[in-house]
Amino acid sequence: MAHYLLELFMEEIPARMQKKAAEQLKDLFELKLLREGLSFSALETFVTPRRLGASVTGLPSHQAERIEEKKGPRVGSDERALRGFLESIGATLDACEEREIPGKGTFYFFQQKIQAKSVASILSQIVTEIIQEFQWPKSMRWGSYAMTWVRPLRSIISLLDNEIVPISLEDPHVLVGRSTHGHRFLSPAMISVENFKDYKEKLAKHFVIIDAAERSQKIVEQLRQLCEEKGLQVKEDPTLLQEVTGLVEWPVVLMGTIDARFMALPPEVLEITMKTHQKYFSILNKHRVSAPYFGVVANMETIDQGVQIVEGNERVLRARLADAEFFWTQDQKKSLEDWSKGLNTVVFHEKIGSVGDRISRVKSLVPSCFFGDKTHLVHAETAASLFKGDLLTGMVGEFPEVQGIMGSYYASQSGHDPLVAEAIRQHYAPLGPSDAVPTHPVSIALALADKIDMLVSFWAAGITPTGSKDPYALRRSALGVIRIIFENNLPVSLESLFSRAYDLLPKSIEKEDRTKCLLSLKEFFAARFNVFLKGAGFDLASIEAVISKKWDGNIQKSHDILKALSDLLNTQVGQDLMTAYKRAANSVDQALRSGIVMSDLVDNSLFVEEEESDLFAAVTTLSLDIPEFLKEQPIHYVGIMQRLAALRPYMDAFFDKVTVQADDPRVRVNRLNLLYLVRTLMDSITDFSSLSR
Length: 693
Hints:
By secondary structure, this protein is α+β, with helices and mostly antiparallel strands. The chain folds into five domains: about 1-65 and about 120-205, 2-Layer Sandwich (Alpha-Beta Plaits); about 75-110, no CATH class; about 210-330, no CATH class; about 335-535, no CATH class; about 565-690, no CATH class. Helix content is about 50%, strand content about 15%. The chain contains 26 helices and 19 strands. Helix 11 (about 375-385) packs across helix 15 (about 440-460). The longest helix has 25 residues, at about 305-330.
């Protein structure tokens, strides 16, 4: 069995692109190897800041001759379809055979013998195609090179069992062979390798660790060791760890010190300054409070054990934090109310108005989004009048990542209630699937009102997400609304909130038709909610039964119905009930198609069989009980489903003993009306008809 090594050596690949690049390389390689009929035992890809590569083991020593078959159009199809097929295969009709596919018809098939090619020539073709097809988020052209790539591509290692496999590129500048470079600073000389084992070992000796997981682990271990020596702990940050791993080939972790004066800054400012701008790790004391230290990952080993590197990073951080200190001091010279006054002149969107306009609408919407002790409603309204005030502060201007956070600090310093400050802090939440949702009624009301006003405003202005484009993060806002309502078990209908938010829009906004706008927004939320529910483990058919065209946008109610329905359908009783429902629905649908007019008015004087009376009595009783169940708070949907399940024996007995298509037309229609009544009753709880398709 043969082994193939590929290394694409280049200038620094942006850290954010590395993981997906390695995944893309693996996917493309696997797809093309399978296309060529080449088996392999393992395919691994690796990436560092300067190289992207693959190791393929268990390749055959040669490709076997094989037969390739192509299916053409159905015999008797339009002549143009047949001509197109023959042109695609480069053959005549005489070279094709006719073959019947059971249940589908007779089709043309074409077989051709594919001659064996050398594995080396196949790999040469595959790698050339991969380089030509590779998709980077951003590519560049440089110098006299003809190709575009994420960064200048310098050389390629292409070895099949120590033999160089040529790669045909448009650019003669890219060297193809068995040579690469070690660490940019610690060992920049050329290195010649023979195979993957030799490649990996030699690079390690020349200060390059090709395995990203190994580099990441080294960073974690070194950080932990440095912290333990001082009785500290690192603040875990998987996103930062992945990014820093992509910045170094030979990680060396060092610890720097933060000047004591800067520890008076809000801890979020310290953390964001270090993480976002400098890629430093935050260090905490034993109480998990910010300590005056930071962890920096260097890509160097130095004679002085990193002393000058630490000093340089401390100097840079000192300048950054001095800026933050200045803004922190200056911002506090004005109250949050004063900062908020300037928002009337700040345009939120040209079609929607100013930020001040939005604040006014959100404040009016807050009461509709408030679920809690009404004595706290005033705090929610106060928070709504101030929640965007920090956008004009110097701190947020310099560090946009702390918007909302700084507003909460400035609200506290302006003497506002802690509930007001916390609501301002949390009004953007949740920012992602792992971010917590607000839980206090004041924070919930502001976060909901803000997101719903934004969504309704954009929809009214005709601005909606299209395909993968969502510049205003409207999908994220919608999912945030769903999570806030669901995780806080709020008894609210989205329809009512959308309607209220639409009514608050000023006449100056050129709005879409109200009905069309709100229906479109509800359908958008239904799609988001479907995704949310699928992620929670519910099956698609049950979701569609609950989130139907009649969906009123009640998140919690829909989930409760879905949970009760899923639990019912996972039992034999539930499956039997669905079987009976399908029989009833099929009978009704067939009668409707034949022109029979039906209603839920059943004449019990026309009953002939005891089973008719029993089913009618059970349905009548249940139809009276269900409204009582629906009055309960919270509604006991499990109980409703259990009562529906109790219909099953009556329906089974009806279908066993009663002939629906009776000779007497009055009896026949009456029995169909009874089944119509059953179906209507069940569909009033949820859309069972979608489950019976």
